[in-house]
Amino acid sequence: MTEVLRQHAEQLYAEELAELARRDERPRPPNWKLSPWAVVTYLLGGRLDNGFEISPKYIGERRLMEIAVATLATDRALLLYGVPGTAKSWVSEHLAAAIAGDSTLLIQGTAGTSEEAMRYGWNYARLLAEGPSPAALVESPLMRGMREGRLVRLEELTRVPADVQDTLITVLSEKTLPVPELNIEVQAAKGFNLIATANNRDKGVNELSSALKRRFNTVVLPLPDSLESEVEIVQQRVASLTRTLELPAEPPALEQIRRVVTVFRELRSGATADGKTRLKSPTGTLSTAEAISVVGHGLALSAHFGDGSLTAADLAAGLLGAVIKDPVQDKVVWQEYLETVVKERDGWNDVYRACREIS
Ligand SMILES: Nc1ncnc2c1ncn2[C@@H]1O[C@H](COP(=O)(O)OP(=O)(O)OP(=O)(O)O)[C@@H](O)[C@H]1O
Ligand SMILES: [Mg+2]
């Protein structure tokens, strides 16, 4: 059997989910695989009574996850909102995995998302041969989720054209999806709900109508509030990444991760960590997700072309790529940061040299 490159959350964490389901004695909403308490435990990690260890998936405030999970137990849909790379898609996948045991009912929102993608389409060969019939109908993930009472995920909701977004209004308020061609409707079974994600960089692309906004409970996922928590996120994700990619590298020294995260946080916030020097911010977002890639890329370099231990030289190329998104503007920002901050910082000599060599 060939191994897949990326497993769904419910496959990757099948053991944890099964153990949680076995131990979970709290009430479960209709058609939920776990109780809300167990879902939050799955997301944030913890130790069960029998000593079984649940790994943390989301690192951040517990209350936010409680609000998200509680929303899904009501008749309102959940909108995860925030800047890029704040784990919106990640949380949405894990929520669906834990609650419905399946994270694959997914609609990717784009400027080209059509009404058919949201509601249903037709198998045209059959439609022409037999006319409209249930067999010629091609269900969207949304319709299937309604029929089976499961969670549906909608990525990048604000990229979807406004008129297509509005098809959701009936679904979310009446919990039904009519098919006029067949004179039928699909009524949502208990357990159905929707998790949408949107990022604020796309704000204004296709703002949510207020009618639709009212049908969502919005949970804003913040950037990690401290250096320590961001370092923890990067460390944890990189560790699992190297496991799946089977990189023959040593786990990166915490010190290297701390440096990458420090650079990201300083440039993002426009000031050095000690607050003494003001900096210009580059045009890119410098999200936690990108910090994870920079460290992951550095590890690949060190595993295949170095001695397996992550050095500043392995990180430099990735750092540069993450910071310089606009070849003119960002280059100036980066040079200034390099010369005024990195060069002067104790113990960062190797970073300075490595970055100078390639810029
Ligand atoms: N607070 C966090 N806890 C755990 N992992 C995090 C956290 N913040 C970011 N990550 C990691 O960042 C990566 C990217 O997250 P994800 O793709 O979900 O971002 P997103 O918010 O959907 O971004 P976009 O708006 O670009 O779609 C994931 O691998 C996730 O593990
Ligand atoms: Mg996303």
UniProtKB/TrEMBL annotation:
Name assigned to this protein: AAA family ATPase
Pfam families per the UniProt record, alphabetical: AAA_5
Domain of life: Bacteria
ATPase dynein-related AAA domain location: 78-216
Lineage, broadest ranks: Bacteria, Pseudomonadati, Pseudomonadota, Betaproteobacteria, Neisseriales
SUPFAM superfamilies linked to this entry: P-loop containing nucleoside triphosphate hydrolases
The organism of origin for this protein: Chitinimonas lacunae
InterPro entries: ATPase_dyneun-rel_AAA, CbbQ/NirQ/NorQ/GpvN, P-loop_NTPase
Gene3D superfamilies in UniProt: P-loop containing nucleotide triphosphate hydrolases (3.40.50.300)
